[in-house]
Amino acid sequence: MIRNVKSRSREYGHVEVYLQIQCGHETQPSTTISKDLANILASKEFSDLTLVSQDKIEFKVHKVLLCARSEVFAAMFRNDLEEKKTGSIQIEDMDSKVLKELLNYMYTDEKIPKEMATDLFVAGNKYAMSGLQEMCENMLIETMSVDSVADILLLADRHSSDRLKSKAVQFAIENIKSVSMTESWKRLRANYLDLCTDILEKAVQERL
After folding, report:
1. Structural element, H or E, at residue 61
2. Contact 89, 51 (CB under 8 A)
3. What percent of the chain shows pLDDT beyond 90?
4. Cα dist. 189→119, 135, 173, 183, 200 in Å?
5. How far apart are CA 45 and CA 48, in angstroms?
């Protein structure tokens, strides 16, 4: 129950001040900060930086928010780099779909699409965003399969993710017969034999 109470007829100029008193529970705001920031990103209002994706799509963004969310971006603008002068950054290793989802996460903290967990895990590693990396790790672990585990293992090894690597190794060991028959495992064995050998040795040890 909410009632408006006139506060002793206090006046500022010609405007009387009313106090909104709530009984029983707190009033929920009609908007949230994440929605407001999503609207700012979409509207491009007050933007002071342009990010250009691998496929040459431009995104108008806000330096202060990117710097608050990523120490890597903050370091770019603390130093006298070319990006600081031009107001534009080329993101040459990320296409527009991935960059769009990265920015959406940076502005809103919303959950990412599961099918983009691998690409955004790499992005989170690049821009030192531990929260994004953890979210992606959880999704990769939840959706890990016989066909995907070899690729996840390589991803974890390349980006020094001990937790993800440990989960992938254990999954591979538990399903070694099926995993070793997949195309992704064959690619891994052809290019990263040491990684495969380590897993096979552990699988043998667990069966002794």
Report:
1. strand 58-61
2. yes
3. 65
4. 22, 28, 15, 10, 11
5. 9
Give residue 200's Cα distance to chain centre. 32
pLDDT per position as a tens digit, 97-149:
999 999 999 999 999 999 999 999 999 999 999 999 999 999 999 999 999 99
Which CB contacts under 8 angstroms, 24+ apart, belong to 155-159? 155/118, 155/121, 155/122, 157/192, 157/195, 159/121, 159/122, 159/125
Q: What residues are paired with 22 via a beta bridge?
A: 2
Alpha carbons 155 and 19: distance in angstroms, whole number: 56
Cα–Cα distance for residue pair 129/66, rounded to 1 Å: 11
Scanning the structure block, which residue is given the tokens 């920031």?
37
Strands 88-90 and 15-22: unpaired
Q: Vertex 157, ends 141 and 191: CA angle to 5°?
A: 115
When mean pLDDT is compared across 58-62, 87-91, 102-106, 134-138, the lowest value belongs to 87-91
Tell me the sheet residues that pair with 4.
Answer: 20
